[in-house]
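Example 9 (inverse folding). The structure is encoded as follows.
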């Protein structure tokens, strides 16, 4: 039987956490460089930035920032570095990226249910609750230094479990409202099939990504194990969310702008990638 509270075991777990974070950074840099069409279109001024794209861009940038920070903090740092403040910035960036990844999908049911005030109010309240849960961890943690580095955050395992469970439930709620709303909204068969395929796949990936860290955090084995799957879960959620956004942005390859506009398709934007880029709300 492994004594998870043993200092040697915690030290070995912290090394695994460090390697996992670096692996996630490498994976996400690869994913970012092969899917930065929207950012490139914006930089080249072929795309006018509008608020529906803000969660997409912000979530990707914040996740990349949090990954770079956590990898830097896990390496030997100067004694002058304020580890608590650095982890505070990292916590904000990481948790905000999770919120943005879910917010990418919230925009669609919010538009679909625009004629139903109480449904939209419920969505707003659920979103506020999600961000409260995400941001709560920002101020409720301590730092465990390891081998001359800032080490990792020591977070209450109940708070970690709550983040993963709420995020999983929130994403399932978004998908359910989107599917129910679209069943009562005239739309093309192609768009419906795309939503069903991409949406269900996204939720399944997100649920799997959040179930594992939720179970491990609830066991409260040791401080390192409580956060070992946090970064992989954030990376998987953001990548899946970003891909479904790009799938809808590229929907013109199968549906013309005129068809989409005439059917009042509740998409955040329409964008042809990568040769031409424009938006049509």
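The amino acid assigned to each position is listed next.
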């Amino acid at each position: 039987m492994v004594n998870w509270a043993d200092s040697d075991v915690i030290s070995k777990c912290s090394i695994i956490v460090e390697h996992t974070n670096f692996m996630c950074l490498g994976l996400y840099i690869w994913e970012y460089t092969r899917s930065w069409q929207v950012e490139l279109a914006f930089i080249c001024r072929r795309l006018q930035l509008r608020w529906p794209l803000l969660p997409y861009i912000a979530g990707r940038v914040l996740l990349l920032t949090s990954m770079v920070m956590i990898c830097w903090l896990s390496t030997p740092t100067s004694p002058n570095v304020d580890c608590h403040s650095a982890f505070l910035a990292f916590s904000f960036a990481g948790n905000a990226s999770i919120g943005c990844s879910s917010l990418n999908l919230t925009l669609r049911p919010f538009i679909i249910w625009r004629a139903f005030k109480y449904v939209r109010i419920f969505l707003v309240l659920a979103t506020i609750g999600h961000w409260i849960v995400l941001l709560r961890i920002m101020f409720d943690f301590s730092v465990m230094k390891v081998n001359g580095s800032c080490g990792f955050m020591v977070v209450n395992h109940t708070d970690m479990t709550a983040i993963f469970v709420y995020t999983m439930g929130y994403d399932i709620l978004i998908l359910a409202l989107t599917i129910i709303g679209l069943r009562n909204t005239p739309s093309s068969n192609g768009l419906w099939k795309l939503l069903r395929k991409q949406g269900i796949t996204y939720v399944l990936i997100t649920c799997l990504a959040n179930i594992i860290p939720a179970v491990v955090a609830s066991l409260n084995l040791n401080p390192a194990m409580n956060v070992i799957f946090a970064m992989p879960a954030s990376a998987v959620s953001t990548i899946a969310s970003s891909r479904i956004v790009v799938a809808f942005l590229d929907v013109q390859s199968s549906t013309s702008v005129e068809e989409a506009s005439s059917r009042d398709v509740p998409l955040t934007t329409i964008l042809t990638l990568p040769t031409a880029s424009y938006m049509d709300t």
